């Protein structure tokens, strides 16, 4: 009985330490990473509201537009398939948003087959290779940037990052950070 209790305490302490280390990485990455002028800006998809980007996704798109307008990238790759509860692909909704904001359609490349962050970056890399683009800036929200950069480097993408802002509500931030811990852990263990 004592051994089981000691094992449980050890596992709990290990989990807590791992949680703290990964959360630290998630929190500090947006402050440590700076975008580097690149060929492409990759915007990772997020949930839609009808056929419109959710506020979380709008933050990403607005950040990508700022990078584009300041010369950090020549093309914007919008990445995301159509979820079960969505009326269009995330990529099409993002492209429509960008064109309404004045981004030329010829500078927007759509990746419409990805259902998760790993696929976002894998399929965006394929688009980059076909278009002769070598360097990319990945744009996502603060809580998501650490994992996106890890995956990009794992896939051998020459990548830097730019963090879009996040919802101001602390409860929303906590939810996303806890969920992201498990997503980072999954990537570290399964490499997908």
Automatic annotation (TrEMBL):
InterPro entries in alphabetical order: Cell_Envelope_Assoc (IPR051599), DUF218 (IPR003848), Rossmann-like_a/b/a_fold (IPR014729)
GO CC, alphabetical: plasma membrane
Domain of life: Bacteria
Domain DUF218 per the UniProt entry, residue ranges: 39-157
Gene Ontology terms: biological process: Gram-negative-bacterium-type cell wall biogenesis; peptidoglycan metabolic process
First and last residue of the signal peptide: none
Pfam families on file: DUF218
Protein name per its UniProtKB record: Uncharacterized SAM-binding protein YcdF, DUF218 family
């Amino acid at each position: 009985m004592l051994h089981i209790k000691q094992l449980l305490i050890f596992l709990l302490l290990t989990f807590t330490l791992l949680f703290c280390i990964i959360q630290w990485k998630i929190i500090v990455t947006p402050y440590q990473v700076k975008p580097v002028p690149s060929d492409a800006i990759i915007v990772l998809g997020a949930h839609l509201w009808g056929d419109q980007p959710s506020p979380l996704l709008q933050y990403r798109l607005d950040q990508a537009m700022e990078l584009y307008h300041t010369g950090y990238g020549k093309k914007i790759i919008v990445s995301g398939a159509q979820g079960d509860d969505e009326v269009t692909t995330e990529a099409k909704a993002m492209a429509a948003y960008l064109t309404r904001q004045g981004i030329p359609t010829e500078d927007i490349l759509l990746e419409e087959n990805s259902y998760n962050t790993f696929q976002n970056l894998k399929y965006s890399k394929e688009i980059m290779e076909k278009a002769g683009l070598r360097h990319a800036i990945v744009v996502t929200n603060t809580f998501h940037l650490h994992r996106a950069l890890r995956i990009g480097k794992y896939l051998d993408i020459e990548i830097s990052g730019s963090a879009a802002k996040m919802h101001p509500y602390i409860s929303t931030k906590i939810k996303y950070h806890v969920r992201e811990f498990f997503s980072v852990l999954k990537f570290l263990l399964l490499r997908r």
